[in-house]
User: Fold this.
Amino acid sequence: MPANLSPEYFKAEEKYLRAKTIEEKILATQELIRAAPKHKGTEKLLRTLKRRLAKLKQELQKQQSRRVGGGPSFAIKKEGAAQVALVGMPNSGKSMLLRWLTSARPDVADYPFTTREPVPGMMQFEDIQIQLVEVPALIEGSSIGKGLGAQPLGVARNADAIALVVDVSADPLEQVETLVGELETTGIMLNRGELEDKPDETLVHRQAAIIATKGDLRGAKEEFEELKRKFGDRFPIVLVSAEQCGDSKELKRLIFENLKLIRVYTKRPDEKPSERPLVLPKGSTVMDVAEAVHKGLARELKFARVWGSVRFPGQQVPRDYTLQDKDVVELHA
Assistant:
């Protein structure tokens, strides 16, 4: 046990040992994390406590899912090129964004928790579709059962990326801190790489961006600038109006780029490129394209010709060549 642990830490430890419910264990573990000294000697202890907290949150989420019984399902089947969860606090503008960016028509009202189950919609971005899912509102304590409980966090965990939707007129800094706190204490780490040699299986890593709504209200631009100063180094951020939703091209591109994907168009010699692209993770190579087309082709692949990111059209490249968005690839076995 590291030295210099405070009396508050030992009180929280006793509270944890006496805890009978998952909720009580979560609260006690959170107190332990707050009370533990923050220095090199307690790094291992803090990692252990955070892992314990993540496991407890997952256990609580499973428990709450069983209690729901015949209630509405929070499972959303993935469709399109990727799934993005719209996560925010009550009345942050999630429903308005979903209505504006997709053909979905969720209820929009000025009272909290209008959306009580996930609502999906398909967003057209150039030549691909991205599934947006409005997640029921989170509040501080959602991860331990407050508000609509922890089920909405499960939707965010399953998504490929997350958009943090905040009302720029209502202390957006606090909203972001609350949302990030609820997600990360449940094991959903935002814009963080794997820092340990052995990845923690209780954690998932997701790319996230911030969409600040209600940008037409007085003082919105000043709040937006403060938001960028505080979180701009960590998150891509865009400001839109809840009524007009700003520039759709800029917002759709932000959502696409946050997914860290590229579109690749294959072609055969002397033929036009395919109209529908392959959608692959950023950093994919010619070999990855060949494997996506056919594993047998990947084994026999010799080289490729590329149009787009190369110095001249149709340039011959090796199998490990890293592709860029909208490249055209001609595979040669």
About this structure: The chain is about 35% helix and 20% strand.
